[in-house]
Amino acid sequence: MKPNALKQKWLAGEPALNGWLSIANGFSTEVMAAQGFDSLVIDTQHGAIGYTDMLHMLQSVAAYDVTPLVRVPWLEPGAIMKAMDAGAYGIICPMVNNRAQAEELVSYMRYPPLGTRSFGPTRAVYPAGSDYFSHANKEILCIAMIETAEAMDNLDEIVSTQGLDGIYIGPADLTLGLSNGKLAPGMDRQEPEIVDAIKQILAATKSAGIASCLHCATPDYAAKAIGWGFNLCTLNSDARFMEQAAAASLASARALLGQSGSVGGGGAY
Question: Over 70: is that where the pLDDT of 269 sits?
Answer without folding.
Answer: no
